[in-house]
Write a structure and sequence with these properties.
Helix content: 40-55%
Number of helices: 12
Shape: globular
Largest sheet: 8 strands, mixed
Radius of gyration: 17 Å
Oligomer: single chain
Strand content: 15-25%
C-alpha cells in the first residue's frame, strides 16, 4: 500500500471518532465542559470514566460524523479553549491521582484569527510544559491524523500509540509539498519521504505501539481495533500507575530527550 493511501484512510469521513472509542473502551463516562477562561470547545471532549474498576480521565479531539456535526466540532481543529480545557482536566486528574488517556485525530490546531487572538500558540506551549511534568500517567493514541502542535499538545505522554493506518507529522503532505517544491499537487510524493506512518515511527522509536486495523481501516471493523485498544490500556495503565511521580517524570523526560540530535 502506498503511504498516501494510508493518508486517505486516516482522513476517511467514516473513521471512528474519539467518542466512539471512549464509549466502547470505558464505562460511566461523564463529560466535563469549559476551560474556565473563555468557553467550551466542541473539538475537544473530555471527562471522567472507568476502565474496569480504575478511575480514568479521558480526553479526545473529536471530529464529526456529518457536515452539521463537523461544523460544530470545527472539523477536529481545536481552539485555545480546547487545549486549556484539556489541561484543566489533566491537572484535575493529577490532583486526584487518575491516569490520563488521550485520543488524537486532528489535521492541526485551528489557525483562525480568533484563535490567534486568544493565544493559540501559548495554549499549546503551556500544554507541552505542563504535560512534561504532570505527576500522573499519560497514554496518547493517534487514531487518525496527528497533525503538528495541535496533536502533540495532547501527545506529550509516557506512551504514544498509533493505529495502523494513522499518520503523525509536523505538517500535512500537501503542506510539505507546497513548502519544499511550491507544488501542493505533489503531496503523494511527499508522503512517501516524510516517515509519517505508524510503521515508520515505530521503527524510529517515536512511538511505543502500533495497534492493528483490518484491511481498509478501523472504519470497516470498529470493534476489532477498539477491543485491541481496551486490552492494551488494561495491560499498560497499571504498570504506569505503579511508578512513583518522580519516576514517571524522569522516564517521560528521557523519552523525549532521546529524540533528534540527542540520539546522535
Amino acid at each position: 500500500m502506498k503511504v498516501y493511501d494510508q493518508v486517505k484512510i486516516a482522513r476517511d469521513k467514516d473513521r471512528p471518532t474519539a467518542l466512539d472509542y471512549i464509549n466502547h473502551c470505558f464505562t460511566d463516562f461523564i463529560e466535563l465542559h469549559g476551560d474556565r477562561l473563555f468557553g467550551d470547545d466542541g473539538a475537544v471532549v473530555g471527562g471522567l470514566c472507568r476502565l474496569g474498576n480504575m478511575p480514568v480521565t479521558v480526553i479526545g479531539i473529536q471530529k464529526g460524523k456529518d457536515t452539521k456535526e463537523n461544523i460544530m466540532r470545527n472539523f477536529g481543529q481545536a481552539h485555545p479553549e480546547g487545549y486549556r480545557k484539556a489541561l484543566r482536566l489533566m491537572k484535575q486528574a493529577e490532583k486526584f491521582h487518575r491516569p490520563v488517556v488521550c485520543f488524537v485525530n486532528t489535521s492541526g490546531a485551528y489557525p483562525g484569527v480568533g484563535a490567534e487572538e486568544r493565544g493559540q500558540g501559548e495554549a499549546i506551549a503551556k500544554n507541552l510544559f505542563e504535560l512534561s511534568r504532570l505527576k500522573t500517567p499519560i497514554i496518547s493514541i493517534i487514531t487518525g491524523e496527528g497533525g503538528s502542535g495541535g496533536a502533540i499538545a495532547l501527545a506529550t505522554a509516557d506512551r504514544v500509540w498509533m493505529l495502523e493506518n494513522s499518520i503523525y507529522a509536523v505538517l500535512s503532505p500537501e503542506g510539505f509539498a507546497s513548502i519544499l517544491w511550491k507544488d501542493g499537487s505533489r503531496a503523494e510524493e511527499a508522503a512517501e519521504i516524510m516517515k509519517i506512518t505508524a510503521k515508520d515511527l515505530f521503527e524510529l522509536g517515536v512511538i511505543e505501539k502500533v495497534i492493528d486495523e483490518v484491511p481498509g481501516g478501523a472504519q470497516l471493523d470498529f470493534e476489532f481495533t477498539a477491543n485491541l485498544i481496551k486490552h492494551s490500556l488494561t495491560e499498560e495503565l497499571p504498570k504506569l500507575c505503579a511508578l512513583s511521580p518522580d519516576e514517571l517524570i524522569e522516564k517521560r523526560y528521557n523519552r523525549f530527550r532521546g529524540f533528534g540530535i540527542y540520539n546522535e
